[in-house]
Amino acid sequence: MARNIAAGIDGSPESLAAAHWAAQEAVRRGRALTLVHAWQRTRPAPFVPPDGTEHGWAEDLVREASDSVRAAHPTLPITGRLICDAPVSALLSAAAEAELLVLGSPGLGRAAGFITGSVSLPVVGCSARPVVLVRAGRGAADEHLPAVDGVAPDEIPQTPYRAVVLCLDVTHPCDALVDFAFDAARRRATELRVLHVVASAGTPTPAVAGPEGLAAAEDGLMTALRPWSEKYPDVPVTGTVVEGRAAAELVRAAAGAGLVVVGRRTGDGRLGAHLGPVAHAILHHADCPVAVVPHT
User: How would CATH label the architecture of 4-141?
Assistant: First the structure.
């Protein structure tokens, strides 16, 4: 049975951006879309009209989001789902049944919201399925390269997609992570840029770099990517090895990308425990959607 693409919505502009991104992804994957909202009977809700209820307000919220998405994707099957539970638990439950969970995040420089708040980090840190975070204000055109002069706005989706960027540690390659990135690039008919960072002196885990060390790392990267290039022959791949701090280098590589893919190690089950400094940095600083893929 095919899993749906799920998006968490809460009435904010960023969650609506996530819903529209999720709809586009559902179309790309040939999946249905589920819009999920968590509501709680005991939560103070000053925004609920005096003659209304929390449940009624939640129903209206899901209906309005569904109408907005359906206007852009009239043939996409869309289901609204209300879960009476705390947001983290509700979203983890939805993620467990989905192929992919999409959440909204505030714009750069904000100090609250999905990325730095109490919702997204536990969800990203514990979800058994990949989670994509989308900035507020992201639209369909933002996934594409700038349109050339003379192209009408309604033709923008026909322009090429921006590249997908993958951060890969060749010493611990993971099939789920690499496959997600290659598949994302294939569905967008775009380039996959794979970055491997060799830690330099002064970093917490310095490695032996220099010309010989970098050459060895490049060989390791090409070896790791070779079977995936054979599996996805239509995906152009560029592998880059740099020396420095992984978080800073990935943020730099993400500039102008359409999607960044990072991994999250699973293991001890602590909330948020597996979001390392690289994932944290890209979630806070990238202006494009970021996919966090769990792996062993």
Answer: 3-Layer(aba) Sandwich (3.40)
- Report the C-alpha gap between 141 and 172 in whole angstroms: 35
pTM of the predicted model as reported, rounded to 2 decimal places = 0.88
4-141 matches 160-295 in fold: yes
| CATH class for the region spanning 160-295 | alpha beta
Three-state secondary structure string covering 222-282: HHHHHHHHHHCCCCCEEEEEEEECHHHHHHHHCCCCCEEEEEEECCCCCCCCCCCHHHHHH
Q: What is the pLDDT of residues 85-98, one digit of tens each?
A: 999 999 999 999 99
* Crossing angle for the helix pair 277-285 and 246-253, to the nearest 10 degrees: 30
Amino acid symbol at 29: R
Nearest-angstrom CA–CA distance, 146 and 204? 39
HSE-up of residue 212 (Cα within 13 Å, Cβ side): 1
Contacts of 223 by beta carbon, 8 Å cutoff, 6+ apart: 170
Determine the Cα–Cα distance for residues 49 and 161; give it in Å rounded to an integer.
43
